């Protein structure tokens, strides 16, 4: 494995983010149609611009806002159901979370489809600890007589949970405050980590000593091991791209992925 | 250019991952997804209820 002397541009550079020392980067993740863009618009107002992700025909929206004399850049990631990178949207969202190292990731969940939405949140927890869960569409959940025990959910997840009805502007003040607290380190989070079945855990244990030889990686070795065990070839491409690891020295991986 | 891994390469790690995957009877990929879904289901059962209309 070879590490290039000339470090390639990070994802932040690639999407034109130019945050200053006092500026925090916030990633906004979530399933499609959970009100993510409504929250993005409410937080940023007119301070936003849109384009495409480099080399992709997928919208990239970013904006900024000020809160308590701090400046925040917020990136509206493509709506995805998972980070297992079966689609280009999933790959973009995964790579941003892995390699742009956002100061806070807000995962927006649809309160009316909690279980399906939690799948994504649990996957984000494996990449970064600095997460806030925004439980949106609470008004819709109430209409369906759904009751969510928020303190219990917060305990189970290990991160702040903010209930919002973004269309009505409810909960956004609390969301800004939590973003501020997590970004500045005033609030520490300990997101729930999945304990996998014994077969998977055993395989991770076998692979970890090998993965830990990847120096200079900002990613958790456990997460890298899981992706390699998952046979995720696109992740290998991203590792190679963002960490400047020579991809050419891993022949046969695509074949193993296809055969998997 | 400098070596990133003194005692191995990305190819070695991928080879090891493939060997570990092949040593299992069941698909690890499917199991990983099933475990994530299982966790989400468990949490949902613990925190979600439906209000009964009188």
Report what the structure shows.
The complex is a heterodimer of chains A (260) and B (54). Mean pLDDT of chain A is 87; it is low at 1-8, 248-252 and 255-260. Chain A has two domains: 5-184, Rossmann fold, CATH 3.40.50.300; 198-258, no CATH class. A seven-stranded mixed β-sheet of chain A has the order 3-4-5-2-6-7-9, sandwiched between helices. Chain A is 40% helix and 19% strand. In chain A, strand 4 and strand 5 form a beta hairpin. By secondary structure, chain A is α/β, with parallel strands linked by helices. The two termini of chain A are 24 Å apart. Chain A contains eleven helices and nine strands. Chain B is mainly α and 54 residues long. Chain B has two helices and two strands. Residues 1-7 of chain B have low confidence and may be disordered. The chains are: A alpha/beta (260), B mainly alpha (54). At the A-B interface, strand 1, helix 4, strand 8, helix 6 and helix 8 of A face strand 1, helix 1, helix 2 and strand 2 of B.
Summary of the model, kept short:
The complex is a heterodimer of chains A (260) and B (54). Chain A is α/β, with parallel strands linked by helices and 260 residues long.
Features:
heterodimer, A: 260 residues, alpha/beta, Rossmann fold, disordered C terminus, B: 54 residues, mainly alpha, 9% strand, disordered N terminus
Shape of chain A: globular
Q: Helices and strands of chain A: which structural class?
A: alpha/beta
Low-confidence stretches of chain A: 1-8, 248-252, 255-260
Low-pLDDT residue intervals, each spanning 5 or more residues of chain B: 1-7
Q: Could you give the count of β-strands of chain B? A: 2
Spatial sequence of strands, sheet with the most strands of chain A: 3-4-5-2-6-7-9
Give the SSE string of chain A.
Answer: EHEHEEEHEHEHEHEHHHHH
Name the chain pair whose interface involves the most residues: A-B, 57 and 45 residues
Shape of chain B: rod-shaped
